[in-house]
Amino acid sequence: PRQSFVMVKGAARLLPAEEPPLAEPPPAEPPCQAPGQQERHLHLMMQLLRPQDAIRLAVRLESARPRRVRYLLLVRPEEAGAEAETALLGVDFAHEGATRCTLGMVLPLWSDTQVFLDGDG
After folding, report:
1. Which of 3, 57, 64, 96 is surrounded by the fewest CB atoms within 10 Å?
2. Nearest-CA neighbor of 70 among 55, 91, 89?
3. Is 88 helix (H, G, I), strand (E, B) or coil?
4. How far apart are CA 9 and CA 60, in angstroms?
5. Phi, psi at residue 30, to the nearest 5°?
6. Which residues fall within 8 angstroms of residue 51, CB to CB, at 6 or more apart?
7. Which residues are 71's β-sheet partners?
8. Sign of torsion, CA 17 121 35 70?
9. Which of 73, 83, 82, 69 is nearest to 37 (CA)?
10. What is d(CA 61, CA 59) in angstroms, rounded to the nearest whole number?
11. How far, in Å, CA of 98 to CA of 59, rounded?
12. pLDDT band at residue 12 using 50, 70 and 90 as cut-offs
């Protein structure tokens, strides 16, 4: 299925199927990022998922290693009532132009889960 995203400053948000894309121009790419690189990263990350899963939110993270590119994904199945199957995924690219990514973390989110992210970004 086709998925539409809004991307702003390293974060992407899935648009519901009935919501039209925003009419405003896309934000300027950060200088360290090639045009379309974030879209390619999203496409590669979606290939890691099961066919029934969808990325609800993707956020590019700062990495401790200078060349590594990291994302935190909020993923859940597209069927109604599947909120119980929501998970956080950590995805790594070896460098900005990498043509494959690896899954570094899987954290299922249960109804009583509390997640605290520490840091300045």
Report:
1. 64
2. 91
3. strand
4. 9
5. -60, 150
6. none
7. 60, 91
8. negative
9. 69
10. 6
11. 18
12. low
- Amino acid identity at 116: F
Let me know: does 36 contact 46? Beta carbons within 8 Å.
no
Domain boundaries, the chain: 56-112
Classify the phi-psi angles of 34: left when phi > 0, otherwise alpha if psi is within -120 to 50, otherwise beta: beta
Collect all residues with Cβ–Cβ distance below 8 Å to 4 and sequence separation of at least 6: 14, 15, 21
Residue 89 scores a pLDDT above 90: yes
Contacts of 76 (CB under 8 A, 6+ apart): 53, 54, 56, 82, 83, 85, 86, 87
pTM summary value: 0.65
* Cα–Cα dist 82/97, whole Å: 34
Local structure of residue 85 (DSSP, 8 states): G
58 near 46, Cβ under 8 Å? no
